[in-house]
Design a protein that fits this description.
alpha/beta; 7 helices; about 25% strand; SAM-dependent_MTases_sf; globular
């Protein structure tokens, strides 16, 4: 099985900080790798979050991977779009959920479709920014907020940095980075830091923002 840190480091050193996602998924499909975040259920912090009623509202899931968070949101009535930079991840999501109402698409958080700007009542950013290096992280944080419609909600789930630095990915987010999502007209509603015992990334953020 490939070492994700080494796989990512190779692409980072070549100036392609997001290029490692597709080969990871492709290797996993071939049985030569495991995707750590490919788990059976939606994020526990998402499942515990009191989502507003979804009827008549649009949702966007950032970096959806195999789609378990997107399916959770769609089941609550949202017209849901979910995207990932890795084509194999999108193929996997569509295969696993063949009758899903979710619109699974390939897209890049750092260069998203212009039509998505302020187009969604709910935006979920779950554990994606923490997989990005410092060189592009601030841009990714800003981009996530641009999707939120007036009156809409951005929900951010991420590992919390409790010590300095370290080999990644992931690179857990600091409180300053969480606060940085409140940009471009977004207002911070709440920030919670909770413990997740028994996991490698044992401290977690759940932050809510609105426009």
């Amino acid at each position: 099985m490939p070492d994700i840190s080494k796989l990512a480091a190779g692409y980072l050193s070549a100036g392609d900080p997001t290029g490692w996602f597709e080969p990871l998924y492709a290797q996993a499909e071939a049985g030569g790798a495991e995707v750590p975040w490919d788990v059976p259920e939606a994020s526990a912090h998402l499942r515990a979050f009191p989502l507003p009623p979804g009827a008549g509202r649009r949702a966007l899931v950032v970096g959806c991977g195999p789609g378990r968070d997107a399916e959770h949101i769609a089941a609550r009535g949202y017209a849901t779009t979910a995207f990932d930079i890795a084509p194999t991840a999108i193929e996997l999501a569509r295969t696993r959920h063949p009758d899903s109402p979710v619109d699974y698409v390939v897209a890049d958080l750092l260069d998203p479709p212009a039509g998505w700007r302020q187009g969604f009542d709910l935006v979920l950013e779950s554990n994606n920014v923490q997989a990005l290096p410092q060189s592009i992280r601030a841009a990714a944080i800003t981009s996530a907020g641009t999707f939120v419609a007036p009156g809409g909600t951005l929900l951010v789930l991420a590992a919390a940095a409790v010590t300095g630095g370290g080999e990644g990915p992931p690179w857990p987010l600091t409180r300053d980075e969480i606060d940085g999502f409140a940009a471009g007209g977004l207002r911070q509603v709440s920030v919670e830091q909770t413990e997740a015992p028994g996991t490698r990334l044992h401290s977690r953020w759940r932050a809510v923002f609105t426009r």
